[in-house]
Structure formats: C-alpha cells, structure tokens
Design goal:
There is one protein chain. The protein contains six helices and nine strands, in the order ααββββαβαββαββα. By secondary structure, it is an alpha+beta fold. The protein has one domain: Class II aldolase/adducin N-terminal domain (L-fuculose-1-phosphate Aldolase, 3-Layer(aba) Sandwich). Strands 4-3-2-1-5-9-8-7-6 form a nine-stranded mixed beta sheet, with helices on both faces. Helix 3 runs parallel beside helix 5 and helix 4 crosses helix 6.
Length: 254
Amino acid sequence: MMESIPAAAVASASPDVAADGRRPGLTSELPPGLAEDLTEAMAEIHRRGWCDGTGGNFSCVASREPLVLLMAPSGVHKGRVRPDELIQVDRSGGVIAGSGKASAETALHLAIVETCRAGAVLHTHSQAGTLLSQWALEGNPQLPADTAQAGSLELTGLEMLKGLEGIHTHATSARLPVLANDQDLPQLAARARPLLPAAPHGLLIAGHGLYAWGRDLANAHRHLEILEFLLEQRWRQMLLQALSQHRTLQPEQV
C-alpha cells in the first residue's frame, strides 16, 4: 500500500481538539480512491444486513510507516458514511485526522494488521456470525460454557472454501478461532494475537460477530463474503440435521 503520511507530519500534528472533534494541523494525502472504496464497501455490507444500526467497524491501511488506519468513526450508521467523514487513526489508536471518535475495537484491528500484515479489516454483526460464535463456546467440551475463553468453529467440505486465499479444494476444513467477548479490548486483542497466524482470514468473537481481513480491501471483502456464506451454511446444516433427527425419532415415540 502507498505510504503517503510522513512521520514528521504525524509528529507535528496538534494535540488540541476543536469543538467539533476535529484534530487540526495534520495534512495527509490518502491513496487515491481509498476513502471512496471503503465507504462503498461499508454501504454494500450494510445492504447485506451484516451491520445494522451502528454495528460493525471497518478499516484500511492508509500508511504502513508510520502506521495509519482509515476508519469509520464510532457510533455512526456505517451504511451512510461519506468519504469525508472517515477518520485516521495511529498505531496507538488515537485519532489524528477527521472528526469523531475511534471505536474501542480499534485495538483488534491493529492487532490483525500488525500480526497478519493485513491491508483491511472488516467486522460484521451478522445473524449467522453472532449465533454460531456463541454456540461454538457454549458447545466447547473442554470448558464449561460460563468459563470458556476460546474455541473454534469448523467449516468443511464446501466448494466456497476455495474463495479463501490459500485453499484450493473443497475437500478440506477451515477452523475459525472463537474468543469470548471482553469489554477490555486491549486484553481481547492480546488473546487474539497468537491465534491469528493460523486463522483462515477470519476470527469470531462470541455473541458479537466476525472479523475478516485480507492483503487489501478487495481481498478482505472477498474473504468476508466467503466466510459469511460459510457461516450461513453451517447453521442451516445444523438446522437440517436437527429436523432429520426429529423425524427419525417421531415414529418410535408414537
């Protein structure tokens, strides 16, 4: 990705904040079209029903050195954000350009970007992701549901797995890590870091949703769509299995 924000510019940015929340004093030039591409992706993700209300958070790497993320501000409707309403966030999670507040979940975005060298991170709150992430921990045979901190969800045997970078056959499994939710985001990010290198470009937070990433925005968006499809298939498979078992048992109960 284009490294367009010099270290001197970040260092000289004023720490003062105007009444409207804008940080003055930083002149930055984003890679061409990045802001427009991110807001278009967010609008499409909202149309798919994966980030209702103010849910979800989305970021792209605007600069690697110094590290700067382009993000939607917290607490806004992600389907309606304009390019000029995006914010820029530094390695510590502080807003260095734009109006608004960074999501507390920025810590997890930064962990994924730094550990996986991701160019974009997309976090959704879909029904399938929220449902299955909670189920995966509640069904963990190793720990009681009320104390389980980590688990996984297996996605297997589907042609759509080949949409994930590095997978070339349907005859395989992808195991999505699942972490218990935590309002202490730096702690959650620290727990996620060792799981990220082996993750199939995605991570679930229990009762919360999916984080998907890729080397750039297009790649991350593709991984998000593939993983959301696989999650949707997983719970429908579980439903069909339950219905089949119910029909098999019924004659014996009559």
